[in-house]
Amino acid sequence: MSVDTRKAERRTLQFANLQEALQDARRVAAADAQGRLRRTGNWTAGQALNHLASWINFGYDGYPATPPWFIRLLGPLLRSRVLKGPVMLGMRMPGVNEGTFATEDMPTEKALAKYEQAVQRLTTAPPSTPNPVFGRMTHQQWMDLHTRHAECHLGFLHP
Question: Fewer CB atoms < 10 Å away: N or C end of the chain?
Answer without folding.
Answer: N
